[in-house]
Amino acid sequence: MHAPTTVDADLTDMMSAVFSAHRERNGPENGMATCDPTLWAQLDELGLVRLTGREETGGSGAGWYEAAELVRAAASHGVRVPLAEHDLLASWLLEEAGLPMDDARLTACVLDEKGVARGVPWASQADKIVTVWRKNDTYVVADLESTFFDITSGSNLADEPRDVVSADTIALSGTPVSDSAIRQLFLRGALIRALQVCAALDRILDLSVAHTTERVQFGRPLARFQAVQNLVADMAAEASLARTATEAALTEAVRTQWSSENLELLIAVARSCAGHAASVVVRNAHQVHGAIGTTREHRLHEFTQPALAWRSEFGSVHYWDDTLTTAALEAGCENIWGLITR
User: Fold this and answer.
1) What is the pLDDT of residue 197?
2) 7-10 contacts: CB < 8 A, separation 24 or more?
3) Based on CB atoms within 10 Å of each CB, which residue in 33, 108, 127, 305 is the most buried?
């Protein structure tokens, strides 16, 4: 997926080259993903670890369009690394709260009333966890060493760390943050996952086009069979729809600096489209690849499994479908067109 505005071509080429070279050196990663320290150090040296951070706090001062290209590059090359969680979520929240920054690798979580957060990305491999909890009817945030928590390791379908984090918050103190900031944290995560899903779908489509063009069966390439053409065409249409919806949400977020009243609806559309597109693209891709697509040696699973995993994080497909349904019902017959076109 390409961001809907021009990002310096040299920058995007450099991002892609870093992840491509990493894959060539290390090959596919089997089992639970780990954050490669050599890759992380290289990304840090290039200013990509805190790409969107404010320059006065040690960041590179870039924007969401550049971040979208970075997220896309990592997902497109099948490299599992917590850049988005570190920069776009945890580091942003520290800046929002006016808290100091250091060189620790970060993730973020929101604890429930029992002091538990589930499915926290990369918690078991983070140095610190930027933690949010409710205290006296106000959200507070603190930057806490990961050793402070009880962490139960887990993973998503793509074997990325998704851990259960628990802590006793009674004795903790934190810096107050607004409810709107915490909602934005969730929406940021939702948009990140939409970007990642779209990048994975585009790569799945590329692999499928290449396979059907190169694979010969019954004396002709698979791409010459009408049934295969229909499968690939459906994949392309669904991936394009998801990409367009995600670009619309990204553009609105950047244009309004996350202040648009319509932004949550646009993100809901993006996540719904991406979630449903993942079903079609993954199913059709495995159909056109046949048995080879189910093997560990073939790269297809490096993108199909993450696409299915990411579509269920920061809100499931059902959650975002329900959000759209509620918005449509509240608008009613007389206002539904305005809801769609505003």
Assistant:
1) 98
2) 7/65, 7/66, 7/69
3) 108
Residue 59 pairs in a beta bridge with none
Q: How far is CA 286 from CA 221, 232, 243, 297, 299, in A?
A: 17, 11, 21, 14, 12
Q: Is domain 9-177 classified as CATH 1.10.540.10?
A: yes
Q: Which of 28-37, 91-100, 126-135 has the lowest mean pLDDT?
A: 28-37
Tens of pLDDT along 187-211?
999 999 999 999 999 999 999 999 9
What does the pLDDT look like over 267-294, one tens digit per residue?
999 999 999 999 999 999 999 999 999 9
CATH class of 180-341: mainly alpha
pTM: 0.95
d(CA 184, CA 89): 9
| H-run or E-run covering 318 | helix 317-341
User: Do 9-177 and 180-341 have matching folds?
Assistant: no
In sequence order, the 6+-apart residues with CB closer than 8 A to the CB of 73 are 12, 15, 16, 18, 19
Domain positions in the chain: 9-177, 180-341
**Distances in whole angstroms, Cα of residue 257 to Cα of each of 114, 188, 191, 250:** 33, 12, 14, 10
